[in-house]
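Example 3.2
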Amino acid sequence: MLRTLSLHRNKLVLIFGLALCSLLGSIWVGDAKTWAEIDWLDVLGEGGSSIAIGVWMVLILGSRPAGRVTDLLTLGMGFMFIAMWQDNLDEFIRIPAEQWWDHWLESGAMPLGIAFLTYGLFHWHSEQLSINRQLEKREQLFREHRYIDGLTQLGRVDYLRQQLERQQAANVAAPISLIMAGIEFYPDVVRRIGHREADRLLREVAEIIMLNLRRQDVICRYAGDRFALVLPSTDAAQALKTARELVLAVQHFAFKTATGETLYQRLHTGIYTAHQGESAEHIIISANAAMEKAGEHNGCCQVA
């Protein structure tokens, strides 16, 4: 959290700097109230609210990257914090009526803050919907933890077979396609950048592939650098189109190593569209054979 907060240091300095300036300005132009004049219920409500908003702001900044949504949320809560802070200061300091800035901070900052916060929440909501659409692709994987690959957090071979059997049982007429995809010259990549960086490459390639699949599609790690993609209700032509899109997506992905080197990868893919009644093992073997053939001919996509 502290590392993330350091990305937003300027925002925090600005907001809490303004709060400090308003405190010093109030002390400079105003007079302290007596204990009898202080409404302690207002102090509790307004002071507690300003502290709560400040904590919310720090928590949000500590969990989000820099960007437009973060800026809007921070602006909104920052204005609201300043308004509640100044309102609380008025409980302790009597400020002359001619000091216009005091009234502006109390009454003007709050509606501005609410407006910015509302606009930021609207964009945050859209952002969350987009993230949730991607998480739905993983939802089934987390139901059965024993089928999870520890490195990529994708399904393993057992899960792949289970999904193929379920799809074959559930879809009598709709075609089911399996794409087997492997990274070209992956052993050479491992020797070049080391196992740790190669593992990170696998995870990031898996994310790229996942982002280019539909909600109903399933991605699994078959073995090593090889991924298996189950595409329900997809014929051979549609599967070939998807495979070519995945090849292009990975081909344009610039992987940055720890040393600053940029690597580009290429996928070999094999496609097999299953017929009703075929076993999961036969489908997997057929897609694997097609992928091997694509590698032998130095091609990107091969339909079995």
